[in-house]
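Reading a protein record of the kind used here takes little practice once its layout is understood. Each number in the token line that follows is a code from a learned vocabulary of backbone shapes. One such record is shown here in full, so that the layout can be seen directly:
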Amino acid sequence: MFKYQLRRLFGKMWFLPFAFLIILIVTRIFALNRSHYLGELSNEIYSELDRLCAETEGMSLDERYAYISEIPYEQDSPRSEAAAEYRDQLVNVCYAVEGVKDYLNNGEGFRSINIPQDLNRYPELYKSLPEPQSINGIYFKRFLRIAGYDLTPIFVLLLVGAVVADSCEKGIDKQIHISRSRRSFYITRELTLVLTIVLMCVLTTLTDLAFSGLLFHPEYLSAPVQSIDHFVWLPVKMTLGSAVLWIFVMELLGALISNAIFIFIARRARDMKLYLLISAGAVSAISVASSRLAAVNLYGSMGINNKESILLNAQYLPSVNASTLVLPTAVLGGALLCICAIRAVRAGLCR
């Protein structure tokens, strides 16, 4: 039965995997072109910045600053431009965090004007922030912007339409329901859909990492997220690798919940056009709401949402000693467990 489901998905509808890959690549090229900031440095300068980060690896903060300060300035020199960028990062990120910690621990003065607004409210939080590393943060920034164009919910919509909605429209599901092998059929179909969705999410994340350049700099994945100037005061302890994993988990949870919702719509609509209309409307509504409301964006993984905005707007929750990033994890994870439990009970009652 499992082989039948695979033949049906990848044999009869062989064009679906190719369409997924083509759309994935095209959207990533588009997202990469849209992911550049105004005034962003050239690739040559970023390459030099990578070299400087490698050259100063293992040095103390003061040693890194002294090393960069000794690089002579040369007009139109990528290395000089990279050194200036590196120096700004040391002042606005590394020295800023060290200065805040020194102030909280022994009352010494700040070393940077870059300080968190809620410093006096949550001093223990900022005392415990990890020490930032000197890295080229452009790759992680590009990853977040590219990940904001994730079309996984739309891929799931088409996948369920091809596998479930089509069968409901033709009445095939009614014939299977009275068959002796219906249990095996439904189990293998669910397993095939889930494994396909997991594979799509993995490929999407790997593609995002590759197009952003972060995949080719794995040494940066172990750096604290506070090493990026945009997220220096992010109220959570996580590495860049953990942030990538968190985004993957959110997309996977959203895709699996979307799968269950789309199957429900397909069974009720029993018409392909109506199914596509309702499901596409749901994805569009969530996407629009996510782009307009920060509170919705946090849970908008069932649509297309802005990952960079989620991290930038993360706030500290003293009651659980964590950030608001735990909220969508708990809510979406709990929702998925409830959906799975309900579907399992209904499936057991029907047999």
